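Write out the 3D structure for:
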Amino acid sequence: MDWSECTAVERDHQLVSGTWVFRGGRIPLVALFQNLADGVSLGELTEIFPEVTTEQVRVVLEHVAQSSKGPELLEPGVSTEKAGQGPA
């Protein structure tokens, strides 16, 4: 994924070992995904990391969603169900 196109994050090779961080701070982007995977809500996340804004999180998640859309998901009528499984 090309994070350089996401306005909510930045990378400085002299800070946090060059990892992608939320713009204007030192909170690694991976902290968002680890916390979401652990069930932390957006409200809790912004309390844990007050320098990360709700808008930054929204922009990052939107970037992930847009980056993960392949042509097959953009064409109408194409099923996104797992192979061999019926509707939920």
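Confidence is low (pLDDT under 50) at residues 71-88.
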